[in-house]
Amino acid sequence: MKQVSNLNIVTYSAKGESLFSALKTLWFYKNLIWVFAKRDLQVKYAQTYLGFTWSVFKPLLGLSIYTFFFGFILNWESEGIAYPIYVLSGLISWNLFTYIVGNGSSAILESNDLIKKIYFPKSILPISKSLVGLIESGISFILLIPLLFYYEVHISWKIILLPFTVLFTLLLGLSATFIISSFSIKKRDLLQVLPFILNMAIWFAPVFFTIDILPEKLQFLMKLNPIANMVDAWRWTMFDYKHFEVIWLINFILAILISIVSYYIYNKREQKFADFA
Q: Does the global pTM surpass 0.70?
């Protein structure tokens, strides 16, 4: 996109933009992110009896199920943190990640009519999904407060670093979303199996279990897993949980690099989205 400020003329090219130009265009249309996020929130809870209350009910349901089966029946340990708090803190990060990937990857197909009618950076669609996910994660975080009082658990001073763990989650989620969207718009088989993959992937992250339940020779795989690092980093910033792992920082840097590459690929292919949407 090129804009001539004096004449207020905007021209478009069929060629893919450079990374810098794409980011500049994205900033120009930044107001659309909230517009689409607000639309998604309204549509998501339209014609439901509970409405926005579902944002509270769903994490509570997941917390209740995991706590009953794994905390009460199987009596799994949670590394010094009350098990319900351990689970909910893991679910906050995990649900944010899966919401971005699950909803962001299908955002192009959901907005196919809009894409064919007007121009805007297509990356706005998955980014707006991220904003919706952040809002719902904020609600889940509020649910954590009464549990902290009940179990007398104190928030760590490291909570000031929480924005970095949130950014870590956003980078991982958007990286996966950009890559999946880039290659699934033409061949949509991946979108069909994506919900199954996300449901299974929770077993590869310490959301409701600790890595101690794994054989010792396999625990290193969990420590190298960036998704597992993401969940543990959330708990580390909120509680006196574990010690800082250098691998978290390495994975954070890798997440930044991968997000740049994945966005570049997405930007190069987005010109064809209208043909296949």
A: yes
